[in-house]
Amino acid sequence: MPSQQEDSSVLDAFMEMLLDSPALAPPPGVESNFIDPPSRRDLSLGILIPFLVIVVTMTLIRLYVKLFIVKKLHIEDYFLLLAFAFEIGHYVPPFHIYTYAPIIHQWDMPIRNIKKFLLDFHVGAIFYEATILVLKSSILLQFLRIFIPRGDRSFTFWMTHIVLWTNAIFYFIIIIMQIFACKPIAKIWDPMITEGKCLNTELLYLVCASFNFALDAAILIWTQKVIWSLQMSTARKLKLGVLFLAGTIACVFGGLGVYMNVRLLRTEDQTYIAGIMALYTFPETASGFLVLCLPVFPKFFKYIMVKFFPGAPAYFKDLKEKLFPTKPRSPHAYAARENEDRNERRQRSLWHITTDASMSQSHVDTISVEPKHSNAGSSESGKGSVEV
Known about the structure:
Elements: H1 4-19, H2 41-69, H3 75-98, H4 111-147, H5 155-179, E1 182-183, E2 197-198, H6 201-228, H7 234-245, H8 247-266, H9 270-279, H10 281-293, H11 297-308, H12 312-323, H13 331-346, E3 368-369, E4 384-385
Antiparallel strand pairs: 1-2, 3-4
Helix pairs in contact: 2-3, 2-10, 2-11, 3-4, 4-5, 4-9, 4-10, 5-6, 6-7, 6-8, 8-9, 8-10
């Protein structure tokens, strides 16, 4: 009669054999390849590394400008730091997945690796949702500060707050549901746990992706609508509008995310589809950092040019005059132009970032904006100042 120790050895051997078997039966005519499986390493690194560089660069430049040039932080800057921390957490699981399963088919992955993959995917999804929650909140807070005068309670104010709080509440609920999607929690990533129950996580991902895409589109349309309702020159509207047009990237990859989530519901090869779907989240979050950080770039480049290339502005001005000579003007026209230039220097640059009142006047420029249609219920006359 076999001893208990022998039974345990047989069971251990069986479990090892099971863990080394394919996580999915291969299609007819295809054999599982655990040694050197076909993968998308090029796609993985081609997306992860460049967009990580973009996120880090954008964040460092904005923080440098706000801390050392402008010397003032706003609430969205603190949110930016939190979003950056979450985004780094978002990048860690994919780089770990790259070491053992860089977008490979599920039949080329042993069951022992599927556990690691599901855990990495689960952690990455939570950090992604936390990043989106904080990043979009930061963008909308910056939008409120730029375009809504203090004390204003116009339609623009309330509509922006509705979008802001809808985003925050939805993603908070989604994060909680993701963390506790299974009971016990480990069942989310451990296929060997048979007891307990889980939510339909694939459907949860699809709902989240659909809402995210709709919110990206709503933010993009709403910001452009408000910008183009301002009473300023078309050139200035274009400059402001371009800052928020980076959100178009988020819409594109958000739409691709919805498409891949639908495919995830319809396929058994989930590791391959989920791997590609996860990669689409990185251009999306990077575009959010672009929207938040692009407004400081003119200030940053101006600082760099003045500090390291002091003769460059005059050189480019002379070059512009040579390439695009202006028409001769009458003495009265020159006098009027000089007066306009003097007044312009006193006004805030369009790309201005708010500074402390104690700072020198050279850092404080102002540009007034006024919506075309002010609300009667607003506490202001509809006139405010753009503070980017």
